[in-house]
Write a structure and sequence with these properties.
Elements lengths: L24 E3 L7 H6 L10 H11 L2 E9 L2 E13 L3 E6 L16 H15 L3 E5 L12 E9 L4 H7 L2 H12 L3 E5 L2 H18 L6 H12 L4 E8 L2 E11 L2 E9 L8 H15 L4 E7 L4 H8 L4 E11 L4 E2 L9 H8 L2 H15 L1
Length: about 375
């Protein structure tokens, strides 16, 4: 194996920081008992830094964990989680982290970003990665240009239920009241049956969006490692006994993530999707969660952006960075979520779309 090439990364901000001497370890959370307790010791930890998400990605798609971490007397100081995606179709690369809206690195006041970046790229060269992509990593690697940018939205849950309701846009309050008036009932569950009911709606929603659904084995893995471990739950809205809307939430420490949402458009007037989210907000606030992360939104998707702003959220930018190891420079990338393929997938039979999703997702990351 050749000596890692690092010369082009010298003089990055932070390289002279005293923490640069602190060795960075490549850790595997799947082989590290007590990993989640270690991660929770960092004040900015979120669900995606924990072992459950790593286990879901490894089990569902075969990705390999490369978590770059520094420690001070067994205390976690820095964490840059990365999964190696190895595909005959799309090549080998490092992603931090696949199928994650945002995964900011965990840092401390002594973090040396230049040194950490050098080590990630040296590992990528040794492993033969085409590129490394960091999602929200620009917060740490500030000299890197953004390759993609999205809107992110977070909701402060610590203000109490009355204030949360008062902060809602008037149209959201009306929707919640209408759903209750129409007899919509919401249940929170961690059962596999609830997840199956959600998945049926999920497939319909993905078809409407012109995207193939994730394979059900991915959701089965979520049930095994997330819901069964009390790190998430399903929220379902029923009207007249029929499931009309649902969402999947993850939680870790005092942060909650609104990860997936789906609904039956035939019942849109009942506003089940609004009540699903509101009841989850109420429940998580009552359990002491401080923040709800509503994920990322494409900057061209004005409708989804307005929906999230209507809940009294704070808006921020989520910026990805991408370093091409062959070109030895940061590069821009295209957001492929929207395009010609949406129309094609929306016209496919749902059964065929599910087969395509089962075949392609592990290559996409």
């Amino acid at each position: 194996m050749s000596e890692p090439e690092t010369a082009e990364f010298v003089s990055r901000p932070g390289d002279t920081d005293p923490a640069a001497a602190e060795p960075t370890r490549r850790s595997n959370p799947l082989d590290s008992p007590g990993w989640d307790k270690l991660v929770l010791s960092h004040p900015d930890a979120c669900f995606f830094h924990g072992s459950a998400w790593a286990r879901v990605l490894q089990e569902s798609y075969g990705y390999r964990p490369f978590y770059f971490a520094t420690f001070d007397d067994h205390r976690l100081m820095t964490l840059l989680p990365t999964m190696e995606v190895s595909s005959w179709l799309t090549g080998r690369r490092g992603v931090s982290l696949p199928f994650t809206d945002s995964c900011p690195p965990l840092v401390s006041f002594a973090t040396a970003p230049g040194s950490l970046f050098d080590q990630v790229i040296a590992c990528g060269r040794a492993r033969g990665w085409r590129y490394w992509q960091g999602r929200s990593a620009r917060k740490l690697f500030s000299w890197a240009p953004a390759s993609l940018a999205f809107y992110g939205h977070t909701l402060n849950l610590s203000v109490g239920e009355d204030q949360l309701f008062a902060n809602l846009h008037s149209s959201v309050r009306r929707a919640i009241r209408k759903a209750r008036k129409d007899g919509v009932q919401v249940e929170l569950s961690r059962s596999l049956e609830a997840l199956k009911a959600y998945y049926a709606l999920h497939c319909l929603t993905r078809q409407r969006q012109g995207l193939p659904p994730q394979p059900f084995r991915f959701f089965e893995s979520l049930h095994r490692h997330v819901l069964s471990a009390n790190l998430g739950q399903v929220s379902l809205a029923r009207c007249g006994g029929k499931v009309i809307a649902g969402a999947v939430f993850f939680h870790f420490g005092r942060q909650t993530i609104y990860k997936y949402a789906a609904s039956d458009m035939a019942f849109q007037s009942a506003r089940g999707a609004n009540l699903v989210l509101w009841e989850a907000i109420r429940w998580y606030a009552s359990q002491g969660s401080w923040q709800l992360d509503l994920g990322r939104t494409e900057r061209a998707n004005d409708g989804l952006r307005r929906f999230k702003l209507g809940w009294g959220t704070e808006e921020h930018l989520i910026e990805f960075i991408r370093y091409d190891l062959r070109k030895r420079r940061f590069v821009l990338e295209n957001d492929v979520t929207l395009g010609w393929h949406n129309g094609a997938f929306s016209r496919l039979p749902l059964s065929l779309s599910r087969i395509i999703g089962a075949c392609l997702y592990r290559h996409c990351a």
